[in-house]
Each structure stands twice: as C-alpha cells, then as structure tokens.
Design goal:
Blueprint lengths: L7 E7 L5 E7 L7 E10 L2 H8 L17 E9 L11 E4 L11 H4 L11 E2 L2 E2 L8 E5 L3 E3 L6 H4 L2 H13 L8 E4 L3 H12 L4 E5 L2 H9 L5 E4 L3 H10 L4 E6 L7 H7 L1 E9 L11 H7 L2 E4 L12 H10 L9 E6 L3 H9 L7 E5 L6
Parallel strand pairs: 10-11, 10-13, 11-12, 13-14, 14-15, 16-17
Antiparallel strand pairs: 1-2, 3-4, 3-8, 3-17, 4-5, 5-9, 6-7
Helix pairs in contact: 4-5, 4-10
C-alpha cells in the first residue's frame, strides 16, 4: 500500500523572469534505493530567491524551465526496490539531492562531500531536489526519519541548521568565545541558535528591528544592533573596538557585508562567509592585509567531524530542543500561492525569516 493518488501532481515550474507557474506534471516513480516523499512543507531559500530574480549561478528561462525546492519534509509515499528499512507513512526530513556524492573520492573520504566532483550527478546529469510540488523523489539515505518530538514544519528548515553546524566547524572557533553574525535572516538566526547551543556568546547585526527582536526571542542572539541606524553603527564600533576573533557574514550583501565583516574582525581574526553573493563582493583588501585576516568560505555541509553528517547533527539539536525552529517560521502559504511567497521575501517592509510552502494545503 502507498499514498499515491493518480499519475500527475501539482508542481511549481520556474520559467525565468520571475515567472512561476503551478502546473500538472507526472508523479515520479522510485527506482532502486529511492523513496517518494509526499511533501508536507518546503521552505523558500535565499538561493531560490536568487534564482527567481535571475541572479547567481542558479537561473532558469522560458527555454530551460525547471523546478526547485531543496528544504523539505513530508511522509514516505512509496519505496523502490532494495529499500526495506523505512515504511510508507513514516515522517521524514530530506537532505537536498544536489548533495549526493560519489562516496569514493578523497573529498568524500574526508567528509567534505560538498567538494566532490561528482556531487549531484546521476547518470551524468545534474540532479537537485524539487520540493515545491506534491511529491519529490530522493535517495533513501537522504530521507531522515523524524523522532516524535520534531514536527514536520520544524524539520523542513533543517538545511539551514546544517549550514550553521558546518559553518561553526570550519570557523575553528575556540570554545565559548564571542562571535559576531552579520545578517538576521534565516541563515544568520539559525547559525546564531547553533552557536549559542555550543556555548558561544552571539552578537547579531541586522537591518530590521523586527528581525532583531525575533533573534532575541528565538534564542539566536545575546546582543543585537540595528546597523541601518547610523547611531547604532557608531555604538557598535565603540563597544567592539577590539573586534571579534570570528565574524560570520550571513548577509550575503555584495555591496558591503564582507567589507563590514572585515571592519569588525580582530587583527589575526577570521571572517567566515555563509551567505551567497549575487555578484563579486565589495571589500577593502588593505584592511584584510593590515589585520592579516583569513577569509573562509563555508560551502553547505557534509560529514567532516567523526563521519557524522552535519544534517544529522542539526536534527539531533532540534530533537533535543537546543534550537527553536518554530519561532523563525514567519509565513505559510499553499503551493498555488508560491509566487506570493517570493514577493513577501522581496518586500523589505515585511518581516520574513522563513517562508514555507504547503503543497497539500490549497486554502487561500
């Protein structure tokens, strides 16, 4: 028995130029080692937003339409051959398919699967999750069964937490040392929760009072500064004149967030870039030179520590109640209104941290 109904499903198709259409497409069928997931929630990621705007490396067009959505959770609807350790109806979170790697190269052996040359390739074709739909097909080992205390809603943003787990690892941050995070969006605040769960004191810079207040309420920060306010900016400069040993750029603002991160890094310090820039970022190389700063990019996540996947570590944090996803979810919309979800994220007058799409909810 499975949860399938019919041969077609509703799915969001990206056709470039901010054109998204919800269309009927075939329901994929699981092959060997696959599971079909009935999607409960799919989060709109910053990289999805770049794709929607026609920026960055992930672009679609009328000639090359595609489907997106790599932050998702749901129920197992069907399993392919050689899958016998998961049952139809089980609740799962899905690690993105674009992170599937070869498993045999030097990078895979060291847990840096995100650097594998074969990452995301299946049969020579690049694959990625397509969670903005009623169903998505994933490899069994990318479907993580959920413990009872973790809701499907919270599990849908585990990808953000896994990015935070990995960023904290590559930062080489000394135990219990203070950190600065630039950016009060989903990546910045999930990283803040992960860092505080690890015992660090977290300062967050943001440009939205509402998001900064949410950071405090959600346990993502100890101290916040609204750096859109010139007075607050000067206060931050005065109160942190010595700088931070590690600064995370989770803003991804090509016009200045890397430059600002360097301005607040202590001599000999490290800047870890977690956000994705739409274009080459602006920064002052003389500041980096004079302070002998290290700039470290953090690329998604893998299993660098003791072979345990960062995604698993993120799920364990959520299950233990050490991070609080619910307080970061600001909007929930049915699939037919996915375009409104992107508009909400682009509207600076609206506080949006994480917008979820519910393919099974067609209410207005």
């Amino acid at each position: 028995m499975d949860l399938l109904v019919g041969e077609v499903m509703r799915a969001a198709v990206f056709r470039g130029g901010r054109n998204i259409r919800v269309e009927n497409v075939p329901v994929p069928r699981p092959g060997t080692g696959d599971v079909l997931v009935k999607v409960a929630y799919a989060g709109i990621c910053g990289s999805d937003l770049l794709s929607y705007r026609g920026l960055g490396p992930w672009q679609h067009s009328a000639e090359r339409p595609d489907r997106d959505g790599h932050e998702l959770s749901g129920w197992v609807a069907a399993a392919g051959p050689e899958v016998d350790d998961i049952a139809v109806g089980d609740r799962v979170a899905v690690e993105p398919v674009h992170l599937v790697s070869c498993g045999g190269c030097t990078f895979c052996a060291s847990g840096r699967t995100y650097l594998c040359a074969e990452r995301g390739l299946q049969g020579g074709v690049h694959q990625h999750s397509r969670g903005f739909a009623e169903y998505d097909l994933v490899p069994r080992d990318h479907a993580y069964p959920l413990p009872d205390q973790v809701s499907l809603e919270d599990a849908s943003i585990l990808d953000c937490y896994a990015c935070g787990v990995h960023a904290l690892h590559v930062s080489d941050l000394p135990a219990k040392s203070p950190v600065l995070i630039l950016g009060a969006g989903a990546i910045g605040l999930t990283l803040g929760q992960v860092a505080r769960a690890a015992g660090h004191r977290v300062t967050v810079f943001g440009r939205s009072n509402a998001s900064l207040h949410r950071a405090l309420r959600a346990g993502a920060a100890d101290t916040v500064y609204d750096t859109a306010d010139p007075v607050e900016w000067q206060r931050a400069l005065a109160e942190h004149a010595g700088g931070f040993g590690v600064v995370f750029d989770a803003a991804g603002n090509a016009d200045g967030s890397l430059r600002d991160a360097m301005a607040f890094a202590a001599p000999g310090g490290r800047v870890v870039v977690v956000g994705v820039y739409a274009q080459a970022p602006a920064f002052d190389p003389h500041v980096a030179y004079q302070r002998e700063l290290t700039v470290q990019w953090s690329n998604s996540y893998g299993s660098c520590v003791d072979g345990v996947p960062d995604y698993r570590r993120a799920l364990d944090l959520l299950a233990a109640g050490l991070v609080r996803a619910t307080e970061l979810i600001t909007h929930r919309l049915p699939l037919e209104r996915i375009g409104d979800g992107f508009s909400i994220m682009l509207d600076r007058s609206v506080e949006s941290i994480k917008v979820l799409v519910e393919p099974g909810d067609e209410t207005a």
